[in-house]
Amino acid sequence: MKIPLDIRFRNVEPPAQAEEWVREMVTGLEKFHSRIMRCRVMVELPHLHHAQGNPYHVRIDLTVPGKELVIKHQPTLHSALRQMDTLAESKSREVDVTHKDLYVALSDAFRVACRRLQDHARLRRGQTKSHEAPPQGRVSKLFPERGFGFLETRDGREIYFHERSVLHEGFRRLEVGSTVTFAEEEGEHGPQASTVRLTAKRRPSAAKSAEHAART
Q: How high is the pLDDT of residue 207?
């Protein structure tokens, strides 16, 4: 396991296999987030607890890029409704019946950790996508009378676009050499540009600049 792990027990005499359970569960977290930098697990048995329900409190601290996730799980009678599945899993791992409450508490806490990691990963993907700058291109060919043209991308490809894909009725303002931003999508005949937006007018050629200077 590559994730740096700190396991601590407070007021608990854990069974010999307790750390192995935790390590297996932490390894399982990597399926939900591949960039976990650190994990700390604290298992506590409070001096005072209710006679009914699972007595163990579990805290999981996860460090991921840009975020610290803290999972505080204090099982109650409500969690007992899920224990049948967990205990079936426990039997397959030969968990001693006397330690089933600890195993269930850990399992419940790590289920919550999995959901938190999934939510965080989805949020990060959404933020990254929303902050990505749209690609830029240059109008390489233009056919105004036929209502379409081609863009040259920064990696040298040529992509078709239709006049209806140009925002704010900007097709008539385009010239060969105009700089635009666009979104690339797969069309019927291959890649095509949509959401084309004019960002700058075409720079005058060197010949036209010289001609303009001579006139002035």
A: 45
**127 and 141, same domain (yes or no):** no
Structural domain harbouring 176 = 136-203
Contact 135, 88 (CB under 8 A): no
State the Cα–Cα distance between residues 61 and 6, nearest whole angstrom: 10
Of 216, 208, 32, residue with least CA distance to 113: 32
Per-residue pLDDT reduced to its tens digit, 148-204? 999 998 888 899 999 999 988 899 999 999 999 998 876 666 678 988 999 865 444
Whether residue 26 is found in the same domain as residue 92:
yes
Residues 110 and 183 in one domain: no
CATH number at residue 77: 3.30.160.100
Examine the fold and report which residue of 115, 131, 147 is the final residue of a domain before the chain moves on.
131
Question: What is the bridge-based pairing of β-strands 57-64 and 5-10?
Answer: unpaired
Interacting residues of 96 by C-beta distance below 8 A, sequence separation 6+: 15
Mean pLDDT, each 10-residue run in order, the chain (216 residues): 85 89 91 86 76 75 87 62 48 56 89 86 66 82 95 89 90 94 77 86 48 48
The pTM assigned to this predicted structure is 0.51
- 1 close to 23: Cβ distance less than 8 angstroms: yes
Backbone angles phi, psi at 122, to 5 degrees: -65, -40
DSSP 152-201: EETTS-EEEEEGGGBGGGGGGG--TT-EEEEEEEEETTEEEEEEEEEEEP
